Each structure stands twice: as C-alpha cells, then as structure tokens.
Amino acid sequence: MTAEVRSLERKRRRRKLLVVLRSVFLIGAAGGLVYLFYFSTTLTVKSVTIVGNYYAQASEIESAANISKGVQLARLDSDVIREHILHLAEIKAVEVRRAWPNEVILAVVERKPIAVTKVDNNWKYVSADGTVFGKSTAQPDGFVGVSASSSKTFSVAAKVAAGLPFWLRERVTSLRGITRDNVVITLDDGVEIRWGGSSQGSLKAQVLKALLGQRARIYDISVPDRPSITP
Q1: How confident is the model at residue 38 (pLDDT cuts 50, 70, 90)?
Q2: What is the pTM of this model?
Q3: Which helix (H) or strand (E) holds 201?
Q4: Do the beta carbons of residue 138 and residue 126 sit within 8 Å?
Q5: CA 40, CA 158: separation in Å to the nearest integer?
Q6: Is residue 187 scored above 60 in pLDDT?
Q7: 8 Å CB contact between 165 and 190
Q8: Phi/psi of residue 194, nearest 5 degrees
Q9: Which pLDDT belongs to residue 11?
Q10: How many domains does the chain have?
C-alpha cells in the first residue's frame, strides 16, 4: 500500500469518525432538549397572566383554564385550554401564549354588550347574538333594556337592539320581543314603535325618522313600505 493510499484511507476513517461523532452529538442534544422541555422542572408553569378581560373576572378565567402550576409548558394543550375558557359567556375568543420560561398568558376577547336585561334581581349584559353575561346590581347607564317571551325571540330582540341608530337608541327605554316578528320599542316619552322582526333595520329606521315629525302614540313600521301611525 503506497503512502498516498494510506493517507486517503486515514482521511476516509477520520471523515467516518466525524460523521459518527456528529450523529452522537445530535442525538444527545435532541435527547437533552426533549428532557429539558418535557421532563425537567426548568420550563414549567409558575404563573398565569390574564389580559383583555373586563366583564369576566381573572379568577374565573384562570379557574376555567385549569392550568396546573408545575406542569411543563411544552405539555400544555392549548386547544383544550381554549375550549374550557370559551365556556364562559363573557369570552368570545382566546389565545393561549407560552411566555418562556415559566409563564402562560391568556389573551381574551370579550363579547361587546349592546343592551341589558333583568334576571331575577340583577342586570346582565346582552351581546348582539343574544348571549347574556356579566352582572350588575343596578341598571347600567347607556344600554337599552331588552326582554322577550322566549330564547329565540330574545335573540331577535337583541339583534334589533344592536342595529338601532344612535339617534334612536338614546331615546329607547325598553325593547320587548313578543314574537320573532313582533318586537316593540318604547321611547322615553311613552311612544310605542312596532318594529316587527330584525330584517330591514336600516330602512325601518329611515322610515321612522320621517314619521316622527307626525305626532302619534304608536308608529308601526313592521312593514316599512306600508307604515302606519295611531294618533
């Protein structure tokens, strides 16, 4: 075997050894990372921070999330945590964030209240889709009071309340859903508006604004192209 051949053979063995050592190093590093993220106590949950909440109490959100202190952040199931938090009526959306090394941040988006309704001796907020949430012992200012004969009718009444223009909303004292096609609005001067269902809200508002120039006790705009008034 010539010196040149022996040199090539040594180089080939060194390259093979380097490949083996690199593989061993990578396997060891990967194993170390797996241990660090999934089994060690270094990257575990030590605190949970709630952001974005107003109507829902932080303690209620943390309780719903049910995140155990000391569990590895990598083991958290964000989908399950999100599903649990969305069971709270106040919460419309939530993002679960891992803030390494030891914190979980729950960023929530709450439902927007557009009205209120009385439940027992308390007032609750109402969103545009008819979801009832929160609680207040006194009627909150600036919100239309909504009531209805059934849950389906309540959803329609909430949708009507959400679509009211500001100039009308500020005069409304109550909004009652009698049937899904019969929502009645009472203004601050006792005038009654028979709104009908939740469709054609913009057109109904325009027709009503024109009719309010005529003094009446009842304005019926349930069929906006055939409105009527009762003096």
Answers
A1: low
A2: 0.79
A3: helix 201-211
A4: no
A5: 51
A6: yes
A7: no
A8: -90, 100
A9: 53
A10: 2
**Are 68 and 158 part of one and the same domain?**
no
Helix (H) or strand (E) holding 193: strand 192-196
Q: What is the DSSP string of 114-182?
A: -EEEEETTEEEEE-TT--EEEEESSPPTT-EEEEESSHHHHHHHHHHHHH--HHHHTTEEEEEEEETTE
Under the banding of pLDDT at 50, 70 and 90, the label for residue 122 is very high
Range of the structural domain that residue 205 is part of = 115-230
CA distance 215 to 109: 44
Structure tokens at 37: 């993220």
pLDDT of residue 42: 75
d(CA 157, CA 184): 9
CA–CA separation, 74 and 45 (whole Å): 10
pLDDT band at 20; cut points 50, 70, 90: very low
Q: Are residues 122 and 222 in the same domain?
A: yes
The SS3 assignment for 85 reads: helix
| CA–CA separation, 228 and 156 (whole Å) | 22
Query: Last residue of some domain: 85, 110, 135?
Result: 110
Nearest to 45 by CA among 97, 104, 95: 104
pLDDT of residue 25: 43
What token pair was written down for 169? Answer: 């909303």
